[in-house]
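hey m, so remember when u said the tokens were messed up on ur end? i reran from scratch. heres the input so u can diff it against urs
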Amino acid sequence: MTPPDTARDHPAPAETPPPAASLRRVALAVFWSFFGVRKGRDMQNDTVTIKPLHVVVVGLLSGLAFVLVLVALVTLITRNA
């Protein structure tokens, strides 16, 4: 006698995909990446939940905001000098 095939009788449950990351989570990941400081387990979670396109968009917008703040600061300082 052969043992019954349990895989056929009980199919494996389908794994549900993890929930998509919020804008706050993406922004925090980009913020900490600008400094080069990121915890390993957070990075592992981010690779599953964050889409690369979201990281690129938030990164470009953050970089643009940083440059605009620097330009405004330099303009303010040099105008009063």
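this time it looks ok to me. The helical segments are 6-9, 23-35, 40-49, 52-79. if urs says something different then somethings off w ur setup not the seq
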